[in-house]
Q: What sequence folds into this?
């Protein structure tokens, strides 16, 4: 569903501030894979996600989504393939609009617009059904302004909106980093439920090693613009943090890598 072939990205090339963010990166995600991405500061995690989303153009290599070469497509044209949830709960929703209005915008994404009723009874029933799956009571507050919701409620709503059209690829950009631990755990459980229910191919950046181990069926650790560790299946299920740090040290060739990872 997602394939990166020899992708390279350098910022400020030819200057004293040159930074190689991605170096001949190769990655392939099959349909329905839920991949957690972890790594230290400057490892290339955010550049990877922004390159896939089209925020950054790559210097060389190819990016394919569901077999389609999207390497040269601008961000707005890639949007039909991608659902995305950002770190900031304030992004991804319209604060001054109602919950049901936000859902309607997400549901109509990429569809032709016409002069008809804003939200039909059938749609409203569908939105209510979807909100019930979150278990947050939002189905009884559909006419409330989104700006009145807590950060966790808003992030859960954003997640639901991103998955509403069942995108080819779901990108989660440290989507629980701004939440308190209890709320973050709730949003992650909701994430797992939505991903499994819709069999969504998902790429999740996280700064939390325990979350990277607990969620998803595959774990990728990045270091200096390339993939240092790639674990899946039973091997991932048996992982503990100490083993993960050891694997990272072996792959990077330095014990200093552990400090970089922990500090991130």
A:
């Amino acid at each position: 569903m997602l394939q990166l072939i020899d992708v390279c990205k350098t910022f400020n090339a030819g200057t004293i501030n040159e930074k190689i963010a991605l170096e001949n990166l190769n990655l392939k995600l099959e349909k329905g894979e839920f991949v957690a991405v972890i790594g230290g500061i400057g490892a290339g995690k955010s550049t990877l996600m922004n390159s896939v989303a089209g925020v950054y153009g790559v210097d060389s290599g190819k990016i394919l989504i569901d077999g389609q070469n999207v390497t040269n497509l601008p961000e707005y044209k890639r949007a039909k393939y991608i659902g995305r949830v950002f770190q900031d709960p304030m992004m991804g929703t319209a604060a001054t609009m109602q919950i049901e209005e936000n859902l309607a915008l997400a549901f109509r994404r990429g569809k032709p617009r016409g002069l008809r009723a804003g939200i039909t009874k059938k749609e409203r029933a569908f939105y209510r059904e979807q909100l019930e799956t979150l278990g947050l009571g939002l189905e009884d507050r559909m006419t409330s302004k989104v700006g009145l919701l807590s950060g966790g409620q808003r992030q859960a709503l954003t997640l639901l909106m991103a998955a509403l059209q069942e995108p080819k690829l779901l990108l989660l950009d440290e989507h629980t980093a701004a939440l308190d631990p209890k709320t973050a755990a709730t949003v992650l459980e909701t994430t797992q439920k939505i991903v499994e229910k819709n069999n969504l191919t998902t790429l999740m950046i996280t700064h939390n090693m325990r979350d990277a181990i607990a969620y998803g069926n595959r774990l990728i650790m990045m270091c200096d613009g390339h993939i240092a560790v790639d674990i899946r299946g039973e091997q991932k299920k048996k992982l503990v943090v100490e083993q993960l740090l050891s694997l990272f040290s072996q792959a990077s060739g330095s014990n200093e890598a552990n400090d970089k990872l922990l500090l991130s």
Notes: The mean pLDDT is 87. Residues 181-198 form the longest helix (18 residues).
